[in-house]
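Recall the central idea of this unit: under ordinary conditions, the amino acid sequence of a chain determines the structure it adopts. In this exercise we apply that idea directly, starting from the sequence alone.
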Amino acid sequence: MHKLFSVDDHVLEPPTTWSSRVSAKYKDRAPHLEWRDGAQVWVYEDIVDPTLGVLAVAGRPQEDWGIDQVSFEEMIPGCYDPQARAADMYSNGILASLSFPTLPGFGGRKFAQLEDKDLALECVKAWNDFILDEWCPGAPDLLVPMTMTPLWDIDLVVAEVERCLAKGTKALTFVEDPAKMGLPGYFTNYWDPLMALVQEAGIPLCMHMGSGGSGSIDEGSHPVVQFAVSTFTMAAVCATNLMCSPTARNFPDVKYVWSESGIGWVSSALERVDGQWARHRMWNDLPDFRPSDVAKRSFYFSIIDEPIGFKSVTDWDPDLEHVMWETDYPHAETPWPHTQKHIDEMFPDLSDKDLAKVTYSNAEKVFNWKLVTPTADQLPAGVSLPA
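Accordingly, the structure predicted from this sequence is:
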């Protein structure tokens, strides 16, 4: 069995995530489920937000996929139930898993855009408490605690991160580029208090593609295919922006994990950004430390199914210290439930040592989380680890 640590999975928040946690005055305006026009949708503030079927396709044949709205009754329980998630993960040899939010956006962007910021703060705290008090304790050796921030106010950010650190969070989900949301960007000192805090705490910032809403869909193109293909361009723009910024340079021990970002673009992007840095460094009074040096020190990139792209990794990461693996359960990219076969096909030529780095040990170090292999009596009923 290949032991696996997935740095990118997703939780479909169960119906009572917010209604059971926000104060009474916000229950009608915090996210709650309603049936409208025959579909189950989330309603909050003045927003109606469906759950698209393509976000919960694990275990379903491709011919049944679609972007039609999907109800919880149509999902497999592993989408929203931690014990069922544990059964699905362990059956595929996945021993650690990081869960990004769904309804709030991957980095909490949607809550930051609510008009009522008191409501927004309660929604952020409720999601974090759901993760720390319900989701991760449901499978404590498997589910790695990761929390979000109230992005719109740095003082609130610091206070909430401190609260979550005290409760055991191991990572923060953040946004690729806050400036895309109209917030201060990484070329200001606005985020310095957060960076100082996470650097001291030793937890990484997880930057899921599209977390800042930075993608675009061109009119006349196939929206799902174009978006899925273009995710690497979003990651390339945001990652090179951050590696050039004073934010990433002034806090050298902060680690950034790029999830669902792809990896084949990294080698050429580093080559190009270093070239442009050298050309324009003198007249812009830029430091000698190259953008690629920032990336090779502080950035970690994840991979799902990219065999050609993986061949270029050793150009910039010869010891395979900055590559991680993800399964993206329950989204369309996931190799589940054939994950072990996928690993064999994806990495046929790696030594055992290098395979271990990519599939779990790099992530163990960055997230300060040691894999635990459950014994037969510790596994969910009816579940066994792969051979």
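The CA atoms of residues 249 and 289 lie 9 Å apart.
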